[in-house]
Amino acid sequence: MAGLEVRDLCKSFGGLTVAEGISFDLPPGARKALIGPNGAGKSTFANLVTGILAPTSGTIRFDGRDIGRLTEAQRVRVGIAKTFQITNLFRRLSVRENLRLAVLERERRGARLWRRADGDRAVEAEVDSLLAQFRLTDMAERLARELAYGQQRLVEDHRRDRGPARRSGGADHRT
Ligand SMILES: Nc1ncnc2c1ncn2[C@@H]1O[C@H](COP(=O)(O)OP(=O)(O)OP(=O)(O)O)[C@@H](O)[C@H]1O
Ligand SMILES: [Mg+2]
């Protein structure tokens, strides 16, 4: 199976075992929420998967590859990123401009060379289609900060999915 496969993951801090025998699958396209009381080990689990903490034992595979000993930066490169409750849009740019930046960023990364006029049209067409997909066409010219939180998240998730992941770790993560 591709996706994330965690087996028998354990983490101890000195004598304190905070994660024990965790097995967890996340197939491509799936979403899972992890809930539990304070101190249950949610942040520890996220930190183990993203490489901020090293496991005491157990394996973490992603798309068939053992990533349990990769650094945080190496895991970002294979596609594991951590995102935070605080959204990271350009709040003073419009919704359309935020999406356009995401599309342009991806095109640069792919080093796809378009003739400028055609390229601009293709980018705008993709932005329009994203706006429609997110049901944000009516909000296109509004500032990103005017969107509801869930709408901001849609735009932001798109930026993360399409652009290079580079926001793993960070000061605003609540632990
Ligand atoms: N670096 C550490 N050293 C020692 N103990 C730790 C460390 N990090 C976490 N713990 C302990 O591990 C347990 C799990 O903590 P964790 O932060 O993962 O819980 P959580 O589910 O994220 O809680 P919260 O809902 O408060 O965010 C707690 O008992 C915590 O005190
Ligand atoms: Mg936590």
Written description of the protein model:
With 175 residues, the protein is α+β, with helices and mostly antiparallel strands. It is built from five helices and four strands, in the order ββαββαααα. Helix content is 36%, strand content 17%. The protein has helices spanning 42-50, 72-78, 95-109, 116-133, 149-162, and strands at 4-13, 16-26, 57-62, 65-66. Helix 3 crosses helix 4. Strand 1 (4-13) and strand 2 form a beta hairpin. It is elongated. The chain has two domains: 6-78, P-loop containing nucleotide triphosphate hydrolases (Rossmann fold), CATH 3.40.50.300; 95-162, no CATH class. Residues 162-175 have low confidence and may be disordered. The two termini are 31 Å apart. A four-stranded antiparallel beta sheet has the order 2-1-3-4, with helices on one face. The site of adenosine-5'-triphosphate (ATP) has 12 residues, from strand 2 and helix 1.
Q: Which features does this protein show?
A:
175 residues; alpha+beta; Rossmann fold; four-stranded antiparallel sheet; 5 helices; disordered C terminus; binds adenosine-5'-triphosphate; binds magnesium ion
